[in-house]
Each structure stands twice: as C-alpha cells, then as structure tokens.
Amino acid sequence: MKVLFLSDFFLSGQTTHVLDLAKQLRRLGIEVHIAFGTIHSKLFWTDYIPYLREQKIPFSEGADLGQLVARCRLMKPDIIHSQSSTLFQRAQLVSSRLDIPYILTCHGLGFNQARYRHLLQAANCVIATGPNVALEISPLSTKVATILNGVDTELFAPPAGSSGPRRSIFYVGRLERKRIEPVKHLANAHAALIKTPLRIISNWNPNIPGTLFRPWQPDLVPILQNAGIVAACGRTAREALSAGNAVLLMQQAYDGVVTPQLVTSGDFDFSGNLGRFPFASLQNDLKKLLRSSHKLKKLQSWSRNYALAHLSSEQMAKKTLQVYQDALDDPRPRRTPR
After folding, report:
1. Alpha carbon of 135 to those of 58, 72, 275: distances in Å?
2. Residues 33, 119, 59, CA angle at the centre, nearest 5°?
3. Domains of the chain with CATH codes
4. Distance (Å, rounded) from C-alpha 138 to C-alpha 335?
5. Start-to-end CA span in the chain (Å)
6. What pLDDT score was predicted for residue 333?
7. Average pLDDT, stretch 284-292?
8. 124-128 contacts: CB < 8 A, separation 24 or more?
9. Above 60 in pLDDT, residue 335?
10. By the 8 A CB rule, do 82 and 6 touch?
11. Can you tell me the mean pLDDT for 317-336?
12. What is the DSSP track for 145-162?
C-alpha cells in the first residue's frame, strides 16, 4: 500500500506525530511519502531533513494543487492522508480529480466550523485524536475513528540503570502568549520549593524570572530521561510518561498530576486546557511529589507502564492502517456533497 501524507511543518507535537506515524507505517510495510506544505521553522532543513533521510522516509517540499496532482500521478498512492487543516481542501480536490480515497486527521477542537463541513463529509474517514474531538465532529461525518496519538515507547524509555526516583523539574513545550501565565505560576511554585531555576525547553525565551531557558531540541529523549517531573501537554506529556516521568498536565490551564485516577475520568484528555484545578494547586502538587521518594518512584513506574499499555505509536499505526483498508473497501463516491 502507498500513502501520501500532506502536512505543514512547524515545531509541535502534530509534526512529531506525522513523522512517528510515517516511521511506524513503514515498519508495517507501507510506503509513505510526506508532501510538506508551509515550512514554519528553519530547523526543518538543519535537523529534520537528516532525520527523514536516516529513517528512509521519502518527502517533498511544496503542496499546491498542481504539485500534488503531479506527485500522485508519479507515485500512484492508494490513500491521501492530510494531517494539517490548511491542506484539507487540497486533499479533497486531488481525491476528487484522481479518484483516490482521502483521510483527514483532526488534531484538536474547532473543526465544527462551516469551512470544514463539506471536507469532513466527503472524506472516507476522519480520524479524531481524542474522544472530545470525536464528539465535536461526529455530527459532520458518519465515519469518525478515534485513534489516540501514540509515541515510540522503545525510544522514549526511562534511563538505563535508574534506581531511585528522578527529581529534576522541567517545563517542555511550545510557548505562545496564552501559555505564559501558566508557566509563571509554575515558576513561582518551583521557586517556593527549590533553590535552582525552573528549566524551560521551548521555541522561544519567555524571560520569566526564576527560569533557565534552553531552545527547543529536536531530540527530547536525553532531556526527558534526565527529568523526573515534567510540566507539559499533548504529545510531549505522552513522551514524558513513556520516559518514566511524573507529569503536570498544563497548557493554558492546569489539569493536575497525571495519575491512575485522572486518566479514568470520563473527559480526560492531554490538552491541558480543561482547568480542573486552580494554578494555586501547583505548589502543593509539587510538594507532594517531592516529599516522598517512594511515592514519586511508584508514580514514575506507573507512568511508564501506562504508556506501554495505552500510548504506543506502533498500535496507533496498526489502527490507522485499518482505517486505510476500510477506506479502500468503501464503495461510495468521493465527490464533494452539495
């Protein structure tokens, strides 16, 4: 089977998801080519092209309609899979012109807008990355598959030979204006308990007092293996769990420590935007984590086991492959409904 991915490139969990899914599908024997649309970071050329070549993932730059039609005529893909909302319409147009099934992945909320309606309706399947996303788009498509984003649990593993709990605290994630206030609260909680600065790994320096900034790292494995407690959301939170960290789930709000109790909540997701707890809870949560080495180590071990059971990108790829197969077996026409 041949699959053409459409994706913009920017420093985010979504891009990492695309690369990991391509890698896992190739391990399953699927030929994947990634057509990148807009490139939003120069790290694409310095760090990510070498990675793509190392993983032997074919790719191309440019995803306008003419380029995609030409690419499809050359490659003859069985499936077109768009991971970026900016490229949904181009996926539909190429599908309609060349009669190739197309799949869309919705990586968050906000896809119930009118501009997406006909694109979701015409798709052979829409993949939702969580139950809340699926609930939002289910009125717009009769073919919604919920497939949670996974991580490479073999790559993101605890450090070898680690016996006691790891206690270093990091904030790891992309920053924008709406995320600054939560990080300030985290820095204040950190300063109240620990003498050293809070370490921040991000795409830009927020210049928050009491923090030590380091630019975004394409390879987060050494950082997450050195950390013990990670404040993050989305894919980075999953990677931190897989590497055996305690995770403070936060983005624009604070959703608490990821625990066996939290993940069984009916509305649990990795967004860090639900606001389950006030920011004032951060200091108390950190204090509890650092107070008992035994409990911290137990939670870190649970994090790893939870990731192995529920967050494997190998399983994610197998579920995605089943979506492709179902799309190929779908006899309905792929023209846009009026």
Report:
1. 34, 33, 19
2. 10
3. 2-150+313-328 (3.40.50.2000), 169-310 (3.40.50.2000)
4. 20
5. 31
6. 54
7. 97
8. 124/326, 124/327, 124/330, 124/334, 125/323, 125/326, 125/327, 127/103, 127/320, 127/323
9. no
10. yes
11. 83
12. EE----B-TTTS-PPTT-
